[in-house]
Amino acid sequence: MPVFQATTSAPVNIACIKYWGKRDNTLILPTNSSLSITLSQDHLRSTTTARADPIFSETKLWLNGKEEDIKSGGRLERCLAQLKKMRKERIEDKNPNTPKISEWNLHVASYNNFPTAAGLASSASGFAALTSSIAALYGLNTFTPSEPAVASPSELSLVARLGSGSACRSLFGGFVAWEVGSSLTGEDSLAIQVAPQEHWPTMHALICVVNDAKKGTSSTSGMQRTVETSALLQHRIKDVVPARMKAIEKAIKDKDFDSFARITMADSNQFHAVALDTAPPIFYMNDVSRSIIALVEELNRVSLAKTGHLVAAYTFDAGPNAVIYTEEENVKQIIEIVVRYFPQSDTNPFPDPFKLFAGKQPKAAPLPEGFNEGVAKVWEVGSVKGLIHTRIGDGPRMRGEDEALLGRDGMPKVLA
Amino acid sequence: MPVFQATTSAPVNIACIKYWGKRDNTLILPTNSSLSITLSQDHLRSTTTARADPIFSETKLWLNGKEEDIKSGGRLERCLAQLKKMRKERIEDKNPNTPKISEWNLHVASYNNFPTAAGLASSASGFAALTSSIAALYGLNTFTPSEPAVASPSELSLVARLGSGSACRSLFGGFVAWEVGSSLTGEDSLAIQVAPQEHWPTMHALICVVNDAKKGTSSTSGMQRTVETSALLQHRIKDVVPARMKAIEKAIKDKDFDSFARITMADSNQFHAVALDTAPPIFYMNDVSRSIIALVEELNRVSLAKTGHLVAAYTFDAGPNAVIYTEEENVKQIIEIVVRYFPQSDTNPFPDPFKLFAGKQPKAAPLPEGFNEGVAKVWEVGSVKGLIHTRIGDGPRMRGEDEALLGRDGMPKVLA
User: Fold this and answer.
1) Alpha-carbon gap, residue A303 to A159, rounded angstroms
2) CA angle (A119 as vertex; A116, A123 as ends), nearest 5
3) Radius of gyration over alpha carbons of chain A, in Å?
4) Which intervals hold domain Diphosphomevalonate decarboxylase-like N-terminal (chains A, B) (predicted)?
5) Pair A167, A127: CB distance under 8 Å
6) Which chain B residue has the Cα nearest residue A378?
7) DSSP secondary-structure letter at B278?
8) I need a surface site. Which of A68, A324, B267, B393 has the fewest CB within 10 A?
9) Type and span of the H or E element at A52
10) What is the CA radius of gyration of chain B?
11) Is A236 at the interface with chain B, CB within 8 A?
């Protein structure tokens, strides 16, 4: 009997127009549209192996080798139910000879190649990998452009959204919009690709992993509190975001980095502004985050005066880490500035995937002419724990058998 | 020949509904109404002596003993011109026998009894003291309730406003509103008293002076940038503030501390939210400020669960210092909590004006039952540089000759 198993990987995405607020907590329907850039799976990814077998006594999930509880009526169960329904209705009911694997229990093992301590939300890549691996197991997606899929990435994004809102955007590569939608049942609140990664392949990202003394408010409870108490959020939802979505889509289509950067920075700041306008207030950025903002703003100020153009855009999610978007040619200079103010430990080697520093630790370089050195202080080593240099990337990928996370016995190969 | 000289003092005020944004930069007309509490001059005050003399060759101003430049067409000149006009039209033109001192040059010496390093805005008390001292010199105000004044405090608030917007609120004691007004010439943008200090005399304030590594954006240029770039400010101006003004005035009239505290904290946070929604973003609070917020929020959470009531309200102006409003009976507990997380240097004696700690350095006490100790870390000594305990206070006061800052020769007694 054949083994019904598939392994896929899915990328992390970092929003430029932020998702903050749900209009439906169960279906995870947002209060506004959002837009993100998909980051390369060469550097950051969740990999998931899904297997269906009639001998499995129950459906089980292992996350980084540790078995997770599948809550009845929870997010994970809702995702699985949707995928089973798609498999049954679109394949099994139409072709009575296909095996009815939707009736079998599943074993699912998922692994993030980035440590939780990196402070990157793993729920987006995680639920996207879960969705795409089960979809592959069920024959719903093909990963072959020439072969039409039974379920499109946008349809699968509806499933991933049930697991974690921003996961829907990880079903595509490139620049991805999550449409707010208007339906109460959520079928129009899905992800669409605004532009593929090939459209603007020089878009790079530098993640500054910031040391955080304490765990902040979870985004689920934080956004709920903002919806309930912020006097400014409704204005953001109704008036600000719709205009920004149009403007940033145009900037992306025109490869207009200046407009892209201005909108991205403004929207990051506005997201943190409505978090602060919450009772009690929510703070995700700390003094280190503020210093990174000061460096990017100063670099842009100097560049604007010299060339008429901006060079970088910061954005912060629900935590203190900065993601700096910039064109490939500027990454080295930005790293040199960041490490000048945030000295790196020698025992924390910089992966340097693009060989900007010959695989060595990056060194501070003289500041650009006219750069006001005093915009930030020099912080102690460890304030920025590490730098991750990556770029725009593609959507979920099929992975080979050799990368499967389940062994021949259907159990995880590596346990926590 | 008699000496034409008057000395008055004026208080600091700290807003509960914040002023942020001008609709007219010259006349200093605000984009929204604001409301403040006047703090006691027993602890914090600006004192000003004004003298008119035909022998003075020019008008001069000394601030803390240092001569200041009086810019032509500047704020100070506009204040002086208004006061001279009032003197001339209301007194000299009507009583030809009164000396025409409005035609003489002035010597003005002003002194703040709190160090600039305390990070308290001195422009409000400073321009209020300047206005009231010249008004007293010119016979416009009387400081005697039984004797009608030639110019009411609200009329004088129009003059102080020309010097520094928030100075207009320091012309009254107690709870003071600055009406936004609608006139283009500003005659209806004035301060009125919502309630005198006797209405709610148990209202106390604890100022936590926070160490700040670097000078932030000046409020004048900061608010200008917010008006120009914040997408959220217009909503605050149009919809949020008018409702909050009504609600906080009712809370004050009802002595409803819970509502007063909720509105005060929400408005402080919203002011900092629109500052963050500015391009480039403006940050006034730092990680120490955030920790103070966390302590007050936690204390309120515990108290709410236990008694159904809040005990404290934080508010932050354009800097990292916290002002905590609370009823007199709660001040000691709040100080004990603050010094637990922000240990004070022994060389920085606490003035203890209300003898809560027998004039000694306050000591940390056990946290209230149920208080989550981990809401903030214990900071290094000096993170909060000092504590100033004060209370609600009265408006400008006449000062005796012994407190005059100008000598018999018309020159400042103390030079910087």
Assistant:
1) 43
2) 70
3) 22
4) 10-191
5) yes
6) B213
7) S
8) A68
9) strand A45-53
10) 22
11) yes
Return the SS3 of B220. helix
Q: B269 and A283 in contact by Cβ < 8 A?
A: no
How far is CA B129 from each of CA A70, B109, B149, B320, B413, rounded to the nearest angstrom? 68, 10, 17, 25, 18
Q: Identify the helix (H) or strand (E) that includes residue B163.
A: helix B153-163
Label residue B32 by pLDDT band (50, 70, 90). Answer: very high
What SS3 class is residue A75? helix
Q: Looking at the partner chain, which of B235, B283, B287 has a beta carbon nearest the beta carbon of A235?
A: B235
Please give the torsion angle defined by the CA atoms of residues B331, B337, B343 and B344, in that order, rounded to the nearest 10 degrees. 0
Q: Is the pLDDT of residue B121 over 80?
A: no
Using one digit for the tens of pLDDT, what is the confidence trace for A262-289? 999 999 999 999 999 999 999 999 999 9
CB under 8 Å to A409, separation ≥6 — which residues? none
**Mutant choice from A211, A237, A271, A287 vs B, greatest count of B C-beta within 10 A:** A287
B320 CA to chain A: closest CA distance, Å?
Answer: 12
What pLDDT, in 10s, does the model give residues B228-237? Answer: 999 999 999 9
**Burial of residue B132 (number of CB atoms within 10 Å: 0-12, 13-18, 19+):** buried
CB of A220 less than 8 A from some CB of B? no
> Of the candidates A31, A28, A80, which has an alpha carbon nearest to the alpha carbon of residue A186?
A28
Look at A273 and B269 and tell me if their CB atoms are within 8 Å: no
What are the chain A neighbours of B378 within 8 Å (beta carbons)?
A: none
Within 8 A by CB and 6+ apart from B173, the residues are B11, B38, B193, B196, B197, B392, B393, B394, B395
Residues 6+ apart with CB under 8 A from B226: B20, B21, B233, B274, B275, B277, B278, B282
- How close A270 gets to chain B, by Cα (Å)? 5
**Contact predicate B156/B141, CB 8 Å:** yes
Put simply, the answer to whether A293 touches B287 (Cβ < 8 Å) is no
Q: Which fold has domain A4-196?
A: Ribosomal Protein S5; domain 2 (3.30.230)
Partnered with residue B10 across adjacent β-strands are: B46
Convert B351-369 to b/e letters by CB count within 10 Å (16 or more is b). Answer: ebeeebbeeeebebeebee
H/E stretch holding A9:
strand A4-11
DSSP A107-151: EEEEEESS-GGG----HHHHHHHHHHHHHHHTT---S-TTSPPSS
3-state secondary structure A234-266: HHHHHHHHHHHHHHHHHHHHCCCHHHHHHHHHH
Give the model's pLDDT for residue B414. Answer: 81
Taking CB atoms and an 8 Å cutoff, what residues of chain B touch A290? 283, 286
pLDDT in tens, A127-174: 999 999 999 999 999 888 788 899 999 999 999 999 999 999 999 999
**Cα pseudo-dihedral B250, B253, B257, B260, rounded to 10:** 40
Please tell me the distance in Å from B222's CA to the nearest CA on chain A: 15
The stretch B102-128 carries a mean pLDDT of 89
Where do the domains of chain B lie?
A: 4-197, 203-391
What is the three-class DSSP state of B88? Answer: helix
> Would you call A214 an interface residue with chain B, using a CB distance cutoff of 8 Å?
yes
**Token pair for B63:** 């601030």
**Are the C-beta atoms of residues A273 and B277 closer than 8 Å to each other?**
yes
CATH code for residues A203-391: 3.30.70.890
Strands B34-38 and B13-17: antiparallel
Both tokens of A207, joined, read: 């993640």
CB pairs under 8 A between A and B: 84
N-to-C CA span, chain A: 30
CB contact under 8 A, A214 and B270: no
CATH assignment of B4-197? 3.30.230.10
Confirm or reject contact between B125 and chain A (CB < 8 A): no
